[in-house]
Amino acid sequence: MGKLYVVGIGPGSREDMTLRADRALRGCDVIVGYHVYVDLIKNEYPGKEYMTTPMTREADRCRMALDEARRGRDVAMICSGDSGIYGMAALIYELRGTDTQPEIDVIPGLTAACSGAAVLGAPLTHDFAVISLSDRLTAWETIEKRLEAASEADLSIVLYNPVSHGRPDHLRRACEILLRRLPEDRLCGIARNIGREGESGRVLTLGELKDAEADMFCTVFIGNASTELIGGRLVTPRGYRDV
After folding, report:
1. Alpha-carbon Rg for the chain in angstroms
2. Using CA atoms, how far apart are residues 235 and 221, in angstroms rounded to an integer?
3. Residue 219: C-alpha distances to residues 60, 91, 132, 216 (Å)
4. Where do the structural domains in the chain lie, given as residue ranges?
5. Which helix (H) or strand (E) holds 157?
């Protein structure tokens, strides 16, 4: 029986991958993943067998990885960012069920909330919420409740999956929900292509964010009431200077 590593590869650059993730990828026989993520690392790990599935085939991908491990091969299931935050770790455990084999080793990675925040400055120094705007697996009504709760609590908010071809207006809809409680001049930011070629960061207001261009390569940040612009960088103080 082989071992199955569920590996968070970070945002995409080699520099943002952990040593533990690199060690697992170097030591495994097979690397399984969404084809976009596989393309990010393929040149760094030659000689491996690669197995991919398209988007929406996550369960097939996980079954493929489990089957290869049961055949006695060491397998790495790769996830963009972190392996457990919107990653495949939970689904791997669900599909393995009550069995204890193959052994699973979940290896965390740098999620977009962390890496995107660094692009913009330091917008997450205090409490924050992470919410995906994809309603493929979560009802929009649930997403709306979470947006309302986060805004009522004055949390900084990170939005994953803000826009796609199938839901081009989700970011606008989310901003309209947030604007029920938050002012139009609330500071926000968009980080794009984090850790990859063409990385960029943009600071804007919530009113501007409603009509801003974004895509699936973007992570969106909404500040809390204390978030400010310092030297062109988005910063949410925690209050250390007042202690």
Report:
1. 19
2. 11
3. 27, 23, 10, 8
4. 3-110, 113-235
5. strand 156-160
Residue with tokens 């084999």: 101
pLDDT score of 111 more than 80? yes
Provide the token pair at 143.
């997403």
Structure tokens at 123: 């917008």
Over range 95-107, report the average pLDDT. Answer: 96
> What is the C-alpha to C-alpha distance for residues 61 and 6, in angstroms, rounded to an integer?
12
Q: Which fold has domain 113-235?
A: 3.30.950
CA–CA separation, 99 and 95 (whole Å): 9
Q: Which residues, 6+ apart, have CB-to-CB distance to 213 below 8 Å?
A: none
- 215: closest CA among 184, 198, 193, 234? 193
Amino acid at 179: L
Residue 243 pLDDT > 70, yes or no? no
Q: Which CATH superfamily is domain 3-110 in?
A: Tetrapyrrole methylase, N-terminal domain (3.40.1010.10)
Round the average pLDDT of the chain to a whole number and report it. 95
147 CB-near residues (< 8 Å, 6+ apart) = 131, 157, 174, 177, 178
- Full DSSP string of 30-95: EEEEEHHHHHHHGGGSTT-EEEEE-TT-HHHHHHHHHHHHHTT--EEEEESB-SSSSSSHHHHHHH
* Band (166; pLDDT cuts 50, 70, 90): confident
- Would strands 200-205 and 187-192 be described as parallel, antiparallel, or unpaired? antiparallel
